[in-house]
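Homework-ish question, so no full write-ups if that breaks the rules, but can someone show me the predicted structure for this set?
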Amino acid sequence: MAVAGYLGKLLKVDLSEGRIWTEDLDEVTLKTWVGGVGLGAKYLFDEVPPGVESFDPENRLIWTTGPLAGTGVSGAATFNVVSKGPMTNHAGSSQANGFFGAYLKFSGFDGIIFQGAAPHPVYLWIHDGQAELRDARALWGLTVWEVEDRVREELQARERDVSVYAIGPAGESRAFYATIVGDRGHVVAHNGLGAVMGSKNLKAVVAYNGGLRRGFEVADPDELKASDDEMFEFARGFGVIYQWGTGGGFSGLYGIGALPVKNYTTNLYPEHERMNGQYLRTHFEVKPMPCFKCRVAHVKEVTVTEGPYAGFVGEEPEYEQLAAWGPAIGNSDLGATVVLARDVDTLGLDCNEAAWAIGWAMECYEKGVFTQRETDGIDLRWGNVEAARELLNRIARRQGYLGELLADGVMRASGHVGGEAADWAIYTEKGVAPRSHDHRGRWIELFDSCISNTGTLESSWGGIHTQLVDLPSHTAPFSHEEVSTLLARFNGIRQFDDCLGICRLATPNPKLLMRAFNALTGWGWTLEDAFTVGRRVVNLLRLYNFEHGMKTEDEWPSTRYGSVPVDGPAEGRDILARWPWMLQNYYRLMGWDEKTGKPLPETLEKLGLGYLAAER
Amino acid sequence: MVRVKTEFWMWLGKELGPEFESPTDMRANLQSEVEEGITVRQFLDRLAERYPLIRERVFPDHQLGQYVVATLNHRGMDREDLYRQLLRDGDVITVLPIYVGG
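A: Not a homework solution, just the prediction itself:
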């Protein structure tokens, strides 16, 4: 019997054998894991045992969408990718928006699991319930933008007939923080999932819009429409995003000491007023480039109108790209951020890790650890945009000493160089750099980055919005107690979001999201049910990570990441002063062993994972 | 009396009223003089009473709104600590839009 919201079909692709088949998704599985990261975590746990490494053919690359994708609800075209990622060598989970999540369902599938490695480059083309592997040797070496153009040409498809997600040169060279990029600038960003795709010789995945035919049922279409309207009204009033985009918070972050400046060597950046989203939208030419059926439509195309890159056309940088290619590398030309954002996306690298790596290298250059001998002639002074562009190209292709060194991420690079420079790099001890913020001014995200099981933020997202689920608001940003307590109490609901196939910018309010979810599925779930699913996902990923070598001592920031700011609004604030206490408090509230952080049997039992406790 | 400067980094321009100076698109600044012994909370309450837009966007219900945060002398602090601070001559309160998402 059909389950509303789902096709009930999972596509499986063995790239080594060139074999393709489908498996049914039953109602019990769907009600246990829902979709997105939930299904991804389940299949990763079931199919990738300890001993399998990120680039082994036995690793899986799991693309899943969720029940809301393709319903026509605003922002519902998100998909999720899960795999064992090379940055942490643990589970990685990352989402992207655009069109793919909806088109995947219009093509007849809720998800795709890749296994094996193709003997030569291929891409997967899915349409009308069919799937085929096609030769991609002619696409190998191309940037993501070039792949999008060439695939459309080959399939004789117009821009919105198909959704193309591909790896660039970085995925091919297995740069550890390679991304999967599609729909002209949307990114599966974290934990090197593009490098896993490259290791499988999989250049792209292409889905047809299927004439936008919805092959699944909706339990209550009128209620779904009403909930869509309500969510949109909420999203429109949520902070400054609707008017100014995510870059609209740039100066606000500067004002609280959370804007990353020159590899955390300072928090002073007076140029912020000419680098924020408001300045961009009032000085550059901007036109809408919305995702599938999205009414918030914060994604824009921009033409640079001033500075050395005037005339350049690219996607409007999101906040993270503005911060990464502005203050983090000491640049104060807004147009250059548009250029670097395009470069990093089309090469297929994560802007966050890339900017931390380049910022660290710039500090090393300033302090004489690197000379032009190590940089192969690049003048890596702070703010040298053309130097950053050249270095990005080298990293993506692992060219030269510095390109090869930095392609493994800033933790490994700094460890290799050693000495004082090892203490200057910004990363979590799990191996991955944080988002492009100075989290020393926003502790909730620093702590979340370190304790996360996904390779990126797990519960916070532009702060933490506890008041939306009737928990106390977060008003004490420098309280060790409030930060660790609220993060534990809120944990789960954002992982549930990531099961649903919808963009969080369109649906920041979990209660309203539940209304839409129930209208679609008819399941009548409560917020507590949603928390339970989210926590089930978190605990399963945590078990997975411990089995794959994670240690409790990995849940710390690096020396620089956890350091005390020397100036700015957070000057003197010391999160590490009570870090062990924060961990213990968080572990206890999560139902984990207070010393080791491992889930307790009774916690697993409550979440329906008791069978795993018994096995361990 | 103590002199206090309040900066709103909220792209409100002259919307707040003629007493506000707007040196850039982002900033609207207000110079005030208040008696000694006034806390930040009492001061923000007064502004909210006098300026409807501040009441609506910044300080509804005697609390900072959901999407704003404030610093004192460009230093971030826990909200209750901020509210309790006694204003001193030359203090600067900065009201910022909080970053969400992205």
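Now go work out the reasoning yourself. Hint: Helices of chain B lie at 40-50, 52-57, 79-84.
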